[in-house]
């Protein structure tokens, strides 16, 4: 073949197509060979150092003793070490002191998010937005008060606001009048508000009393929110809230967490709720 090679002196294989398209027989470039051998060496070294080959009952463990679960545990230890520094700092501080420290506050909010999801979100919504029967925690309208100590108390001891049923005390007509006055935002303009004792719990101006958790009736922020708000207001006036003597009374109870969560967790949750936007 060599003598018939139309390209004498060239290192081709003798396979020639279309007159001049030919297959050369050059060695692979040097850089390519280096990379090739290096990758084989790397593969062997990897097999020696790390777990690699499956066997019948086990696998080669590698001389470094590396396992995925160990790496995970080491990572976890690291996180817990960082956390324990923060946690022990929090132990000795009041919620108010935490709020005064920006770094601690951010840490607290981040770590209380899970606590809130586990313990509070079912009633108050995942971001504290509330629901028809559960108060909003993201606004600055408070039944019991938005001071940090008050929020802590609410979480520790629970709350159960009581409004007496008026089913036997008011006629339907009187309920209509009171409901209309409440809807107008000026309940005190209705003489029945004084005459029937509403002021005793809601205050003479109808703005509510935080010691009793009686809702502010002048701000159009509804504790018992409904599509038909007038009907909801009438229902509350007629049957009250948590009045055991009236089976139609609304039920509204904030459970106590003092016996379920640690003091530290409650402190964190108080800071979290405070920082949801409505702290005072
Ligand atoms: C079973 C439902 C339920 C769960 C769970 C719950 N709450 Fe409540 N929460 C309520 C109800 C109902 C009220 C209103 C009580 C009332 O009207 O007297 C309330 C009231 C509150 C208030 C007072 C709001 C105000 O306007 O003064 C705060 C603060 C609060 N909850 C925080 C929390 C936190 C934090 C958690 C989790 C640790 C939590 N709640 C878990 C039902 C719940
Ligand atoms: C014994 C105290 C008490 C009396 C008396 C009382 N209320 Fe209430 N009222 C409350 C409390 C406490 C709440 C809030 C309950 C809760 O959120 O758990 C409330 C809630 C309400 C609400 C619901 C507001 C909302 O945002 O959804 C209306 C409306 C209302 N009261 C109107 C009246 C009227 C009108 C009278 C007089 C006929 C009256 N109340 C008498 C304690 C009282």
Structural write-up:
This protein is mainly alpha-helical and 280 residues long. It has eleven helices and two strands, in the order ββααααααααααα. A two-stranded antiparallel ribbon has the order 1-2. Helix 7 crosses helix 10 (229-239). The longest helix has 24 residues, at 68-91. The chain binds heme C (2 copies). Residues 143, 161-164, 166, 178, 182, 196-198, 200-202, 212-215, 217, 222-224, 233, 236-237, 241, 252 line the site of one heme C.
Draw up the topology in text.
Elements: E1 12-17, E2 21-24, H1 30-49, H2 68-91, H3 95-99, H4 102-119, H5 121-124, H6 148-157, H7 172-184, H8 191-195, H9 198-202, H10 229-239, H11 263-278
Antiparallel strand pairs: 1-2
One heme C is lined by residues 143, 161-164, 166, 178, 182, 196-198, 200-202, 212-215, 217, 222-224, 233, 236-237, 241, 252.
Summing up helix and strand content along with how strands pair, one would put the structural category as mainly alpha
Mean pLDDT: 92
Oligomer status: single chain
What is the CATH homology-level superfamily of the largest domain?
Cytochrome c-like domain
Parts with pLDDT < 50 across at least 5 consecutive residues: none
Count all strands and give the number.
Answer: 2
CATH fold name of the largest domain: Cytochrome Bc1 Complex, Chain D, domain 2
Spatial order of the strands forming the largest sheet: 1-2
Q: What is the overall number of helices?
A: 11
Largest sheet: 2 strands, antiparallel
Query: Which bin fits the share of residues in helices?
Result: 40-55%
Inertia-based shape? elongated
- Specify the CATH architecture of the largest domain: Orthogonal Bundle
Q: Cα-atom Rg, whole angstroms? A: 37 Å
Distance between the termini: 98 Å
Report strand %: under 5%
What is the domain total for the residues?
3
In sequence order, what are the helices and strands, one letter per element?
Answer: EEHHHHHHHHHHH
Tell me which ligands are bound. heme C
For the record, what CATH class of the largest domain applies?
Answer: Mainly Alpha
